[in-house]
Design goal:
By secondary structure, the protein is of the alpha+beta class. Helix content is 55%, strand content 11%. It contains 25 helices and 15 strands. A hairpin with a 2-residue loop joins strand 2 and strand 3. Helix 2 crosses helix 3 (81-91) and helix 11 packs parallel to helix 13.
């Protein structure tokens, strides 16, 4: 079977590390636009754009396996490198050069050193195979009558050192005649449609099947035993390696999606039941889950048994993601050792937050809860999150509907871990409700409700009414006080706004007066200097008059020009450098102090 014969899927890369990829069937595609039905919900369709995030692949292909389970591809290549290479050639009919085979495998996530090492062994074997054509350095797969559909026939992995025995054409011809096929079919044709083949074989009597099985050679018996996996009511033939189940499940899921016929449903159910009795290898878990999900649409009684067995098998080896498993669980009843209980526990232990989805618990009753209270399920139902989200609401809901003594007895006899969750008033109300219909229960209620207890309750009620009245009066007084305070607050706010306006006016006037005083002092100084200069007064007189004018405004000089002084960092500003305190300096320009505030430090020159 080539790539064109298979179902296209889209694999969405995980957005965060540790998340599994999401896989969906392509319903329609045009260019890079595709309509996808995701496997994890099975119903919702989404339009996606193909690219680096959403990758197109063919279901069951080597590329598909590399995208969804790279670890499984590495394991398969380690166990059966020839099988992986032959599958790659079958999926690409144009063929590959040797370098292209190696680069493609590396692109699919295999280690380059491993591929190179295996290729040295594979290359001479590949050119000698009857089903591989080697021409112009290109390897191409070709069907051979000696090895029809050889490398996709389910079989145990081999090392590639010895040629594998393949089902024979006479067997295929005989099987075609036995099933009244319109035209001869190959063994691979029967294996590629395991459900249809199972239905056809199911129409034969067991004697005819046993006779044929006993007459076949080893390779034919193996292929025929694979076909018997989907035969309703029939045990499989020879024991099969678990690796085979993956290919059978993938083929069955693809077949049933393409033809969801009611006639194939019994074959799906029996295939699931038989595979569930084995130990599922990791690579078979995902296709097993996908096939089981296809059976969740209106399952019949026999199909529910298959889902029950399937749920138990899945719980032993969970897939990479739990999405979709709830659709299997909600079809099944809760029983102490049932598949639903096991699957719910397994998901709850691995993904605790996700098991709070109410679909996992849909249909569960208090009786189911009590019956399954032991073991791992009991521990799951004791977790605080499950108690608050699921168990407590269930108990309160069913207790509110209890109307018989038999129903009450269920609550009275349940394990203490659940009984302690029952609200005492709700239990009393349940007794009263049952007592209105049942005289015996009514007598119990009367015995529990003695007169002194009733009197005490009435007294409590009277005191409660008095306290309520007093509280109402206090509340009314408090409300009146609140209104008074609110009025007072409003008045204070108005006064505050008025004071703020007055303050702003005063501050503005003060600032204006300060500016006027400063400018007036500056004008006096300028006039004094100009007058003395015009009179050609001596510099000493000019300095003396300026300092006198400054003194009238509380300005004190820091030193005199050309005077010696001792350096003080708080009063002096050096022209250069940073002199040490107490060193001699020469005052170049004096500074001034106003009311103990240093307005300007004196400019000094350190002496050599």
């Amino acid at each position: 079977m080539t790539l064109v014969d298979r179902t296209e899927v889209v694999v969405r890369r995980p957005r965060q590390a540790g998340e599994p990829p999401r896989v969906g069937k392509v319903l329609a595609r045009k260019g890079t636009a595709a309509t996808v039905q995701w496997h994890d919900d099975g119903f919702i369709e989404e339009n996606v754009r193909l690219g680096s995030q959403n990758l197109l692949a063919v279901e069951g292909s080597v590329r598909h396996l590399s995208l969804v389970d790279s670890a499984e591809l590495q394991r398969r290549f380690a166990d059966d490198p020839m099988g992986v290479v032959i599958q790659l050639l079958r999926e690409h009919t144009r063929g590959f050069k040797g370098t292209e085979i190696k680069s493609t495998l590396v692109e699919f996530g295999l280690e380059k050193t491993t591929v190179d090492k295996k290729w040295k062994i594979l290359q001479p074997q590949l050119t000698g195979r009857d089903d591989v054509k080697f021409h112009s350095n290109v390897y191409t797969w070709k069907p051979s009558r000696k090895a029809p559909e050889s490398d996709e026939s389910p079989s145990p992995p081999d090392s590639g050192k010895q040629p594998r025995k393949q089902p024979s054409e006479p067997f295929a011809t005989r099987l075609s005649e036995l099933l009244d096929a319109a035209a001869p079919r190959t063994v691979q044709d029967f294996l590629a449609t395991p459900l249809r083949t199972g239905v056809l074989l199911g129409r034969l009597n067991h004697t005819a099947i046993d006779e044929l099985l006993s007459e076949l050679e080893e390779a034919d018996r193996r292929a025929f035993s694979v076909m018997l996996l989907a035969v309703p009511g029939r045990a499989p033939g020879d024991p099969l390696p678990t690796e085979i189940y993956r290919d059978v499940l993938i083929a069955a899921a693809a077949e049933f999606r393409a033809e969801p016929s009611p006639a194939l449903r019994p074959a799906v159910a029996w295939l699931l039941r038989k595979v569930a009795d084995t130990t599922l290898p990791p690579g078979a878990v995902e296709p097993f889950v996908q096939l089981a999900l296809l059976l969740t649409q209106d399952p019949q009684k026999a199909e529910l048994k298959a889902l029950e067995a399937g749920a138990g098998a899945i719980s032993r080896t969970l897939p990479a993601t739990h999405h979709g498993l709830v659709r299997i669980a909600e079809q099944l009843p809760f029983t102490p050792e049932g598949g639903r209980t096991k699957l719910t526990v397994a998901v709850g232990e691995r993904w605790p937050a996700d098991v709070l989805d109410k679909r996992w618990w849909a249909g569960m009753t208090v009786q189911d809860l009590v019956d399954c209270a032991g073991g791992r399920f009991g521990r799951l139902t004791r977790s605080p999150e499950v108690v608050e989200a699921i168990i407590r609401p269930l108990l309160e809901r069913e207790l509110a509907g209890a109307t018989t003594r038999a129903r009450l007895s269920l609550f009275l006899g349940m394990p203490s871990q659940y009984a302690e969750l029952l609200p005492v008033p709700a239990v009393a109300e349940a007794f009263a409700r049952v007592g209105r219909r049942d005289p015996l229960a009514a007598s119990w209620v009367d015995a529990l409700s003695e007169q002194d207890r009733l009197d005490a309750l009435r007294e409590d009620a009277r005191r409660a009414r008095e306290e309520a009245a007093a509280a109402a009066e206090r509340a009314e007084a408090a409300e009146e006080r609140r209104r008074e305070l609110a009025d007072r607050l409003q008045r204070l706010e108005e006064q505050l706004r008025d004071l703020q306006g007055t303050e702003v006016t005063i501050r503005t006037a003060q600032e204006r007066q300060i500016k006027i005083d400063v400018i007036r002092a500056l004008a006096d100084l300028a006039a004094e200097v100009e007058e003395l200069t015009a009179a050609k007064a001596a510099p000493e007189i000019l300095v003396e008059r300026v300092r006198g004018l400054a003194a009238t405004h509380s300005l004190r000089p820091i030193g005199n020009a050309n005077d010696d002084a001792i350096f003080d960092p708080e009063l002096h500003e050096p022209i250069y450098g940073t002199p040490e305190p107490e060193v001699p300096v020469l005052v170049i320009r004096p500074g001034y102090i106003w009311n103990e505030l240093v307005l300007q430090r004196a400019l000094v020159d350190p002496k050599e």
